[in-house]
């Protein structure tokens, strides 16, 4: 019986924290008791315990309760512990299984992208990418997916330092055209590399956002032009955007 009572108390305490999280201006003890479906005295004891441990705080003037800063401390620790590769891996595998093509996960660093994960798929494709290798941003789908969501002054700084050197005849080398391309990426929600980095290779990529809604990474699917047709890219972008949203949510983006 004692165990059942303890479990019930924990459950009620969790419910209290849940309802308080949705009340910006806090709640009185009577409101809490009514929503949880318990006696006012029981609600008061639970709230007092939560206040004691910092999970809830009480306004001295209004006597209303709201979530305490303990949650901010805990959420900060949780966000610091998030491993991008670990959180993204199940979704990367899903993409690999769906497409049978090469899947990349990259992060942005000093005006370039760095491959931090690569799944090779089941189809044969020879690419220069490998985990740990850097790549330019202006001619890769992953790079453009990230650049499109960086502040304009940051993009300008990158272009001033890195330029828009051609990697193939399809690389965009005109700055005005490139900014139009980034605008298109923002509108569509995904970026394309149509043989702009390597001949014979086409890629589609989506951005990944963290808990501050800042772009931190990108995911792509790459394949040969014979398989990555316009029709297939059109079909893939829906799944890609879904995966990008799911990974972003795992990083705390809401």
UniProtKB/TrEMBL annotation:
<keyword id="KW-0804">Transcription</keyword>
<feature type="domain" description="IclR-ED">
    <location>
        <begin position="70"/>
        <end position="253"/>
    </location>
</feature>
<dbReference type="InterPro" id="IPR036388">
    <property type="entry name" value="WH-like_DNA-bd_sf"/>
</dbReference>
<dbReference type="Pfam" id="PF09339">
    <property type="entry name" value="HTH_IclR"/>
</dbReference>
<dbReference type="InterPro" id="IPR036390">
    <property type="entry name" value="WH_DNA-bd_sf"/>
</dbReference>
<dbReference type="GO" id="GO:0003677">
    <property type="term" value="F:DNA binding"/>
</dbReference>
<dbReference type="InterPro" id="IPR029016">
    <property type="entry name" value="GAF-like_dom_sf"/>
</dbReference>
<dbReference type="InterPro" id="IPR050707">
    <property type="entry name" value="HTH_MetabolicPath_Reg"/>
</dbReference>
<protein>
    <recommendedName>
        <fullName>Glycerol operon regulatory protein</fullName>
    </recommendedName>
</protein>
<keyword id="KW-0238">DNA-binding</keyword>
<dbReference type="GO" id="GO:0045892">
    <property type="term" value="P:negative regulation of DNA-templated transcription"/>
</dbReference>
<dbReference type="InterPro" id="IPR005471">
    <property type="entry name" value="Tscrpt_reg_IclR_N"/>
</dbReference>
<comment type="function">
    <text>May be an activator protein for the gylABX operon.</text>
</comment>
<keyword id="KW-0805">Transcription regulation</keyword>
<dbReference type="InterPro" id="IPR011991">
    <property type="entry name" value="ArsR-like_HTH"/>
</dbReference>
<dbReference type="InterPro" id="IPR014757">
    <property type="entry name" value="Tscrpt_reg_IclR_C"/>
</dbReference>
<dbReference type="Pfam" id="PF01614">
    <property type="entry name" value="IclR_C"/>
</dbReference>
<dbReference type="GO" id="GO:0003700">
    <property type="term" value="F:DNA-binding transcription factor activity"/>
</dbReference>
<feature type="domain" description="HTH iclR-type">
    <location>
        <begin position="7"/>
        <end position="69"/>
    </location>
</feature>
């Amino acid at each position: 019986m004692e165990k059942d009572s303890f479990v019930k108390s924990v459950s009620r305490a969790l419910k209290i924290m849940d309802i308080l999280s949705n009340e910006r201006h806090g709640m009185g003890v009577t409101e809490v008791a009514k929503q949880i479906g318990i006696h006012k005295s029981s609600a008061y004891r639970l709230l007092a315990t939560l206040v004691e441990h910092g999970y809830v705080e009480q306004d001295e003037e209004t006597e209303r309760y709201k979530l305490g800063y303990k949650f901010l401390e805990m959420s900060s620790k949780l966000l610091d512990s998030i491993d991008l590769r670990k959180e993204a891996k199940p979704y990367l595998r899903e993409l690999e299984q769906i497409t049978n093509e090469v899947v990349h996960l990259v992060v942005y660093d000093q005006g370039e992208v760095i491959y931090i994960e690569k799944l090779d798929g089941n189809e044969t494709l020879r690419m220069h990418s490998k985990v740990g290798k850097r790549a330019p941003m202006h001619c890769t789908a992953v790079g453009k997916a990230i650049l499109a969501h960086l502040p304009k002054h940051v993009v300008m700084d990158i272009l001033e330092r890195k330029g828009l050197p051609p990697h193939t005849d399809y690389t965009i080398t005109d700055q005005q055209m490139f900014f139009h391309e980034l605008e298109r990426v923002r509108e569509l929600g995904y970026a394309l590399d149509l043989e702009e980095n390597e001949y014979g290779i086409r890629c589609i990529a989506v951005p990944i956002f963290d808990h501050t809604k800042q772009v931190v990474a990108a995911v792509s699917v790459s394949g040969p032009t014979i398989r990555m047709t316009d029709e297939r890219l059109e079909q893939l972008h829906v799944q890609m955007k879904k995966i990008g949203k799911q990974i972003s949510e795992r990083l705390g983006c809401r």
